[in-house]
Amino acid sequence: MGHFKYKDDLDVEEDLRLLRWEWFLERVSWGLMFLIWVATVLGFTGRGGMGVSQTTAGGPETSFEVRYDEYLREEATTAMLVIFHEPGAEIAYTSTGSL
Fold first, then answer.
1. In this predicted structure, what is the pLDDT of residue 3?
2. Where are the alpha helices (DSSP H) in the chain?
3. What mean pLDDT comes out for the span 45-50?
4. Does this model's pTM top 0.70?
5. 17 touches 4 (CB < 8 A)
6. Radius of gyration (C-alpha) of the chain in whole angstroms
7. How far is 92 from 86, CA to CA, in rounded Å?
8. What would the mean pLDDT of 17-31 be, rounded to a whole number?
9. How far is CA 45 from CA 48, 52, 57, 62, 64, in A?
10. Per-residue CA distances from 98 to 21, 44, 46, 64, 79 (Å)
11. Lowest-confidence range among 2-11, 35-44, 57-66?
12. What is the pLDDT of residues 51-76, one digit of tens each?
């Protein structure tokens, strides 16, 4: 247990070591919330930042290719592009929707 200090004549126990630990955790939590807010403002949780990258499966050497966003969000609009590589022609199909 920590060291207890009695406040004036009241029987109120204070564990100063525990209080300092709680204050430290509170400050760290506020810092983490601030960093999440900064990431949101810079677009890292939406369409900007990391959400812009796309992934490709297949390619011109195969019969078809699929392109889609690497990171998806619930209820956000996203697009998937399917390209069929046929000899002498290329057919593309785009589907847009939300999760």
1. 61
2. 16-41
3. 61
4. no
5. no
6. 27
7. 11
8. 95
9. 7, 10, 24, 33, 31
10. 44, 19, 14, 23, 8
11. 2-11
12. 556 666 766 677 777 877 776 667 77
Confidence at 38, pLDDT banded by 50, 70, 90: confident
Helix (H, G, I), strand (E, B) or coil at 79: strand
Tell me the Ramachandran region of residue 30: left when phi exceeds 0, alpha when psi lies from -120 to 50, beta otherwise. Answer: alpha
DSSP 51: G
Q: How far apart are CA 63 and CA 80, in angstroms?
A: 17
**Residue 27, by phi and psi: left (phi above 0), alpha (psi -120 to 50) or beta?**
alpha
- Domain limits, the chain: 4-41, 49-98
**Which residue, among 43, 94, 95, 92, has the nearest Cα to 71 in the 3D structure?**
43
